[in-house]
Amino acid sequence: MISGTGVTKTYRRKGNHLGAQDVPALRGVDFTVPKGGAVSFIGESGCGKTTLGRIVAGLETYDSGEIVIGDVPMTPLRPRKREPHFRRIQLIHQDPYSALNPNRTIQQTLRAPLALRARQAGRPGSWIDERAEELLSLVGIDPGYVLPRYPHQLSGGMRQRVVIARALTVDPEMLVADESVSMIDVSMRLSILALLKDLRERLGVSLMFITHDIATARYIGDGSELYVLYRGQVVEHGPTETVISGPVHPYTQALLSAIPVLHGLERPGADRVVPTEALDERRPDSGCLFARRCPFSTQRCFDERPELAHCLDPSHEHACFHPHRRQVIPVERFTGAGTAVNEPPADGGCRPAGTATGGATGTAAGGATGAADGGSAATATGAPGNGAEAASRVRTIA
């Protein structure tokens, strides 16, 4: 349904006594969200995932590259001509507290977009209230209780469901969920994730899920894909379970190494990766953006910037000169057969396309625990498994 090719975005700060400084948010991002499919973007704060979501929803412009909605490229169109296309994509905001107008009741909030929809479709005025009640029931809340109330009279979970209902008022073909459960109590997160998954299955809408929480990315649906962003560049991409159970890029491995271990039930991954230094974006990087922090970097990594290449599995891509599968996530101490689960192939099982087979040298920093240095934080479940197992043990790192 929607794809992006070489999308770039740079924010330019005004000059001061220290001089002006450009902040690259996206550096040539390629992505595809299939019709009815689900795609997740994960990465630490500041990696560009929210910027990408706002660009896809039409709330932010991009500097270069191309966004294609359906079969229509957006770049040649004037802003007003783009609006009908971007209206097919709706954003679910991160903060349900600020996403709703505190001076309007929920009924007033839903009536505005529904009135526009009624005019476009030639429907009578009675349809507006009927549709508002239908949408609230669809997202799992009682219309009679919610419609006359103001946002401050609702719980956080109810507010987030109202935000989702508002996004559905224009019958979108895709939802962009930007950290849609990060502001909600842990006890309510699973219900919102289940709702998004149900909407995808019942309505056939595509889902672009932006998160730093690996567990939630894992839960959004079967057949989903995962993009790992680092400093505005996609460093790894593939089927969600493939990337989580067998990451090949050191940055992805560092994120997954930050998963906490349930002592007594799990043991740490054998090859956990910890960055060698804190992130400093003020230093120029002509080669790999992760080279200064990577424990496996070579001189080539500092001199050249790797492009996305595929592993033995064509659907699994990475941007690394020394890709190697490592066991970094916690694994259950025993399975039913008494063996560890999700062990990677002995030889790493991955080589960049069209290059020699020289794997990475060295091993991960000896079994280090905790979040990666420099603020790299991730959240995830324990041992990998199916979506229901992942949802049953959502754990969070501050």
Notes on the structure:
This protein is of the alpha/beta class and about 400 residues long. The chain contains twelve helices and 14 strands. It has an eight-stranded mixed sheet with strand order 6-7-8-3-9-10-13-12, sandwiched between helices. The protein has a four-stranded antiparallel sheet with strand order 2-1-4-5, with helices on one face. Strands 11-14 form a two-stranded antiparallel sheet. A hairpin with a 6-residue loop joins β12 and β13. α3 (about 105-120) crosses α4 (about 125-140) and α4 packs across α6. The longest helix is centred in the middle third of the chain and has 18 residues, at about 185-205. The protein is globular, with a radius of gyration of 22 Å. Residues about 335-345 and about 350-398 have low confidence and may be disordered.
Helix-strand blueprint:
Layout: E1 2-12, E2 22-33, E3 38-42, H1 49-56, E4 64-69, E5 72-73, H2 79-86, E6 89-92, H3 106-121, H4 126-138, H5 143-146, H6 156-168, E7 174-178, H7 186-203, E8 206-211, H8 214-219, E9 225-230, E10 233-239, H9 240-245, H10 250-257, E11 266-267, H11 299-303, E12 309-310, E13 317-318, E14 331-332, H12 387-392
Parallel strand pairs: 3-8, 3-9, 6-7, 7-8
Antiparallel strand pairs: 1-2, 1-4, 4-5, 9-10, 10-13, 11-14, 12-13
Helix pairs in contact: 3-4, 4-6
What is the structural class?
alpha/beta
Would you tell me the overall average pLDDT? 81
- SSE series: EEEHEEHEHHHHEHEHEEHHEHEEEH
Query: Which oligomerization state do the chains in this entry correspond to?
Result: single chain
Annotation, overall tally of beta strands = 14
User: How would you characterize the largest beta sheet?
Assistant: 8 strands, mixed
Uncertain runs are: 336-347, 351-398
What is the topology, as strand order, of the major beta sheet? 6-7-8-3-9-10-13-12
Rg from Cα: 22 Å
Question: How much of the polypeptide forms β-strand, as a percent range?
Answer: 15-25%
Shape: globular
**Distance, first to last CA:** 35 Å
As a percent range, the share of helical residues equals 25-40%
Q: Number of helix segments?
A: 12
